Amino acid sequence: MSARVPPRYHEAIDLDALCQEFPPAPEFFDTVWTLPEEALRARREAAFLKQMERAWQVPFYRRRWSAAGLQPGDIRSLDDLKLIPTFSVHDMRESLERDPFWPDYFGVNPATDEALPLVFQTSGGTTGLPRPMMFAPRDREVMNIVTGRRLFMQGVRPFDRLQVTLSLGLPNGGLLVREGIQKYTGAVPIMTGSGAQTPTRRQIELMRAWGVTHLIGFPAYLRHMALVARDELGLDPRGFGIKGLITHLGVEDRGTLEELWGADVYDTYGMNEFGSVAVDCAEKSGMHVFEDCFAVEVLGLPDEHGTRRLAAEGEDGSAIVTTFFKHVAPMIRFDTNDITSFAPGRCACGSTHRRITGIRGRADGMVKLRGVNVFPEAIGALVAADPRGNGEFLCVLERGERMVVRVEMSDGSVAADVFAADLAGRFKEALSVRLEVEVVPKGTLAPLTGLDTTSKIRRLIDRRAVQEA
Ligand SMILES: [Zn+2]
Known about the structure:
Residues 371-464 form the AMP-dependent ligase C-terminal domain. Helix content is 30%, strand content 20%.
């Protein structure tokens, strides 16, 4: 039984061929990054068709596409992408109900297929079981090449020291970035993990003693670190010699973080299922999609008839991601639910790869309040912009279409009632909806948001279904 023979990693993958297909940094930037549109298009078409061939072998897609009346020959180019039905985590969960560990969106069958060196990681999983993903060497190596590219673009060079403050465990974030740093940057990953793994004061001590050059983590935690250094240890983080902060910025205020650390902040967008998709270049004018590895579409939110159409440049919608490189679980038109838009025009850096704007929120985290769409992320951006707060907040949705935003003050000298009134006015002005503001002491919200213990920080609690005692 060949399926029972343990595989050898180096025999399971042709790394030279893979690096031709998906060049790592620095050669990527001399080749694919600035390819004229037509040549880039040709490269993408070939990769897409190859991925479609693989996807037809995956039971999940065969089942769904056949039900939609599609045949393998129907999709002949990227222009036909729009004919393929999208899917979301809800469809993945349906598949997971049948098998929570080996869903049918994995195109490898342990009973019949040859053994492969596999990596298993999951989504954050705030409710129920997390969403599993399995990676073959090819899947993982392309994701690692992309990590190498993005860090190169954001100024990371050999022998730099990168402190990674992401959770190390089931979620992909921390472990994936370690593989990419190790294999494709020449820099050194320092895996301190989240605040639960290495307490914040210890993180700061190590950072200073070891001469860390870059920090990788979620923006709320990076801000928290800077404030602990400044307010509790009496140290100025701008003197720590940090060159760059690499983060998933979302709507967090870049300027505030840059000011706190005296360092450049770079935004990145990615997911457990396929790693980084799009990242800031040095221009910080929108995140370039790695278009040789992915197709990103922006699909508008449903109109009053429930119809969705592809959004034009500059128009908001949810990011739909298609991978070009995955073996175990290709992702074809995955509706991420993340709200973004295409940035207009060409970037000054000279790349031909399209850019998306920062992720403004989750379509499924959006709250409809008296007819207005409200994203907790947008509230966070307004909170972070006021220095009387420390950026920490929690939205509590109450019955009767009320939202109370609890906001931490930066210290005891803040006049809470004035701060609350000003912030409520700012919300009304920027979001066109009235929200109540409750100012609370520093540190009060951490047990509810999970700031110190998890990288999946909670910003919204829905209490509408809670019966008052
Ligand atoms: Zn650029």
